[in-house]
Inverse folding.
């Protein structure tokens, strides 16, 4: 039987400020150091050392040793050292929907925003001169204040007029020179963002040894009114759409000649990752073409085969690769093929169904069990390249009636009644390239630390991701928008101690 052996361990996420660089036309965001006060407050992790303490610097040194060791395993040492000194880290934050976030800098003077990264939607929007938005969040460490963008205080801000090609709501304009309004309505619980489109400077850095600053003028939403899930913890400080539409940042960078029409995201097993604009991937990556719908363009691909352990099934279906969806949603027959094949080969006792979590295939671990075996899950894409899942499950911890810790793991796949979505949990352990020039999806195993050679230390399928999420958020494409796509039904919201009180599906 084709199995992965998973060793159970506790994951401690030590942070580091790093960026990445490669060649002209590849850019990265400026990202907070993992131990900087804003990010530390938002992550709200137990056991983080106090700034300035001996434990703080010991932890920094520990991460540096790991970090530098991984860099030295790759290509040019000088290039990699310079690359990671600038900052281009993304964070998977469980308390904010288990999505990946980056700290982006906009306007003059500069303001930083912690935005969710979403390949399933197009518009980049920020809370702006808002009457309804999240201005701060309270954590166990105290209050964390968010920046709010203002058109009046940024000297480089200009409104996008109604006669612009970027304005999709021209019918709501009384005059062609008025500011273009927008409203993005999401499927989840009356969730929306409403405001006007503006143009301002997004601060980027070249991904080379010079780390040159590049000021890119981009269009984005000045979100005056946010509703629903955006007030409850999902993308509270902005959503960064990375879709195919002309208003997305990758499209604007390409149209202005600042980067090639491609970008990549890396999803590390430790919750850290990175994003790069102008990254076309490598010649040895796996690839499959996008299925482009003229009216609803998304990163949709075709699959031809599912392999679970010893079971191999030929089946043709399509799915959207969406970083803004926490987990993976599949309809039949794909859902039944994966779950039933996995269940037939699982060696641990089936866990009783729990209404607090959306996953139906869960398995118990004994008190002294330190590892478990699961069948490998591999997907074959159109064209024949394989996508081997490194992280198809989640490990949960709870307490029984005697206050004893008990553990179980779940195959993190949710049954969908409609569209298939490959969520970011299936992307873990990969450098994923969204190449809009060749119109292909590319992927290659990566630990997200090596700047040049993403396969130097590939993620081992035997590794465990560790920590369960507190929420499920799927910022994807919005309903009622001509550039959108239909959505799977969201899991039922609950007050689960395992998944938290917020569960939502956001569809553009």
């Amino acid at each position: 039987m084709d199995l992965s052996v998973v060793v159970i361990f506790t994951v401690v996420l030590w942070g580091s400020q790093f960026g990445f660089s490669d060649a002209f036309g590849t850019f990265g965001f400026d990202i907070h150091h993992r131990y900087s006060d804003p990010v530390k407050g938002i992550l709200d992790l137990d056991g983080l050392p106090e700034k300035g303490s001996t434990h703080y610097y010991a932890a920094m040194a520990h991460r540096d040793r790991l970090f530098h060791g991984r860099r030295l395993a790759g290509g040019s040492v000088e290039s990699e050292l310079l690359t990671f000194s600038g900052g281009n880290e993304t964070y998977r934050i469980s308390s904010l929907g288990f999505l990946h976030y980056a700290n982006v800098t906009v306007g003059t003077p500069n303001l930083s925003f912690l935005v969710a990264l979403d390949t399933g939607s197009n518009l980049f929007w920020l809370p702006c001169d808002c009457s309804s938005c999240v201005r701060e969040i309270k954590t166990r460490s105290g209050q964390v204040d968010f920046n709010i963008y203002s058109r009046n205080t940024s000297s480089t801000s200009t409104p996008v007029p109604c006669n612009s090609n970027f304005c999709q709501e021209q019918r709501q304009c009384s005059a062609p020179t008025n500011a273009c309004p927008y409203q993005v309505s999401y499927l989840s619980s009356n969730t929306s963002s409403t405001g006007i489109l503006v143009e301002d400077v997004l601060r980027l850095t070249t991904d080379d040894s010079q780390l040159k600053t590049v000021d890119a003028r981009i269009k984005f939403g000045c979100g005056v009114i946010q509703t629903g899930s955006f007030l409850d913890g999902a993308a509270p400080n902005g959503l960064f759409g990375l879709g195919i539409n002309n208003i997305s940042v990758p499209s604007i960078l390409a149209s202005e000649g600042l980067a090639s029409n491609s970008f990549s995201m890396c999803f590390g097993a430790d919750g850290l990752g990175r994003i790069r604009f102008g990254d076309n991937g490598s010649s040895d990556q796996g690839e499959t073409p996008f299925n482009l719908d003229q009216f609803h363009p998304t990163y949709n691909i075709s699959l031809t085969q599912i392999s679970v352990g010893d079971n191999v099934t030929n089946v043709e279906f399509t799915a959207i690769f969406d970083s803004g969806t926490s987990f993976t949603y599949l309809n039949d027959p794909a859902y039944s093929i994966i779950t039933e094949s996995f269940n037939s080969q699982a060696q641990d006792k089936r866990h009783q169904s729990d209404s607090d979590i959306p996953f139906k295939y869960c398995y118990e671990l004994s008190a002294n069990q330190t590892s478990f075996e699961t069948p490998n899950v591999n997907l074959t894409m159109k064209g024949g390249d394989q996508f081997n899942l490194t992280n198809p499950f989640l490990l949960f911890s709870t307490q029984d009636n005697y206050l004893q810790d008990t553990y179980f793991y779940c195959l993190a796949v949710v049954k969908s009644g409609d569209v298939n979505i490959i969520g970011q949990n299936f992307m873990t352990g990969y450098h994923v390239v969204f190449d809009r020039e060749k119109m292909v999806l590319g992927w290659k195993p990566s630990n997200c630390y090596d700047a040049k050679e993403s396969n130097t230390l590939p993620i081992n399928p035997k590794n465990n991701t560790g920590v369960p999420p507190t929420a499920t958020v799927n910022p994807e494409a919005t309903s009622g928008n001509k550039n959108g796509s239909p959505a799977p039904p969201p899991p039922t919201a609950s007050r689960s101690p395992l998944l938290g009180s917020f569960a939502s599906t956001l569809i553009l």
In short: The two ends are 41 Å apart (CA to CA). The chain is about 10% helix and 35% strand. Residues 286-503 form a domain with the Cathepsin D, subunit A; domain 1 fold (CATH 2.40.70.10). The longest helix spans residues 54-72.
